[in-house]
Design brief:
Blueprint (H helix, E strand, L loop, with lengths): L3 E7 L2 H8 L2 H8 L3 E7 L12 E2 L9 E2 L1 H14 L4 E11 L2 H9 L3 E6 L7 H6 L3 E4 L9 H13 L8 H6 L17 E2 L2 E2 L2 H4 L3 H19 L11 H11 L10
Parallel strand pairs: 1-2, 1-6, 5-6, 5-7
Antiparallel strand pairs: 3-4, 8-9
Helix pairs in contact: 1-6, 4-6, 9-10
C-alpha cells in the first residue's frame, strides 16, 4: 500500500514543521508511512508584496483571504496528487471527531489541509474549490494551523503501522464510543494512593469488567452525550444503572 500524502497550505510553515517531526508523526515520516508537504501560501501570490488578504466587499471588520493564491496553490498540489481531498479548516465546518478521523484514514490516500487566517477565506474557495470544511470545536483560534495538526495527527494515528501497538488506537477514548478507562503504572503505592487491587490481580475477566465499569463511569460524569449513540450492551446498561445509583460495588463491578 502506498504511503499517505498530506499537503498543508499555510502562512506559517514553521508551526507545522516543528510538530510533525516529533513523536509518532516524526517516526511515521522516517518510516515512510506518511509524507507531509508544506506549502507557503505567499509563494503562490502574483504581486511584489506577496499579498494574501484584502478588505471584504460590503464592509466589516478584519481582512479576508484572497482566492487567487489558494486556487493557484491547489492547482500545483493537484499536479502532484490529482486525487487529493481538499479540506478547509474553519470554525464553520462540520465537527471533527474520532469517526471522522477513521473515515479520512480509509478514504483517499492524499489529503490537503488549508489553514485559514484573518476573518476567513473568500467564499468562492468554499463554494468551488474545497471538498469539505472541518471544525475542531465551537471556538475561534488565531489560525487553522493548530486545527490542521489535530486532523493530521488524529488521522495518521489510524493508519496501519503508524502507532507501534495498534491496540492503543482501538482502545483510545471514542474508538469504542465512550471515554477510556483510568490507567495506572508503577509504583503500586504513592503518597498513600493505591492502585486498585483488581488491576493487580491478574484475573483478566475481573480486570475487563472493572475497566469497562470505570470507562462508563467517566463517560457518564464527563460526556453523557456519548452514551446516547455508544451501542451499549446489556452488561453496560446494568453497570450504568449502578453508576446512576452511586454504587461502585466497592470499586469493582460484580
Amino acid at each position: 500500500m502506498s504511503n499517505f500524502v498530506w499537503d498543508v497550505l499555510t502562512l506559517f510553515p514553521e508551526i507545522i514543521s516543528v510538530y510533525i517531526h516529533s513523536g509518532i508523526l516524526g517516526r511515521a515520516l522516517e518510516d515512510g508511512k506518511i509524507t507531509v508537504r508544506i506549502h507557503q501560501l505567499r509563494d503562490y501570490t502574483e504581486d511584489k508584496r506577496r499579498t494574501v488578504d484584502d478588505y471584504p466587499y460590503g464592509g466589516g471588520a478584519g481582512m479576508v483571504m484572497k482566492p487567487e493564491p489558494l486556487f493557484l496553490a491547489v492547482d500545483r498540489i493537484r499536479d502532484l496528487s490529482p486525487e487529493t481531498r481538499l479540506i478547509l479548516m474553519s470554525p464553520q465546518g462540520r465537527p471533527f471527531d474520532q469517526e471522522a478521523a477513521r473515515s479520512l484514514s480509509q478514504g483517499s490516500r492524499a489529503v490537503t489541509l488549508i489553514c485559514g487566517r484573518y476573518e476567513g477565506v473568500d467564499a468562492r474557495v468554499t463554494e468551488h474549490l474545497v471538498d469539505d470544511e472541518i471544525s475542531i470545536g465551537d471556538y475561534v483560534i488565531s489560525g487553522g494551523e493548530l486545527a490542521a495538526l489535530v486532523v493530521l495527527d488524529a488521522v495518521s494515528r489510524c493508519l496501519p503501522g503508524v502507532v507501534g501497538d495498534e491496540r492503543s488506537v482501538n482502545t483510545d477514548s471514542f474508538s469504542q464510543g465512550i471515554l477510556k478507562h483510568p490507567q495506572y503504572t508503577r509504583p503500586e503505592s504513592y503518597r498513600g494512593m493505591q492502585v486498585p487491587e483488581v488491576i493487580l490481580s491478574g484475573h483478566h475477566e475481573r480486570i475487563r469488567r472493572f475497566q469497562r465499569f470505570k470507562a462508563l463511569e467517566k463517560t457518564f460524569r464527563n460526556r453523557p452525550d456519548l452514551l446516547e449513540r455508544a451501542g451499549l450492551t446489556g452488561e453496560d446498561l446494568e453497570m450504568l444503572e449502578r453508576i446512576r445509583r452511586g454504587d461502585d460495588g466497592g470499586a469493582e463491578p460484580v
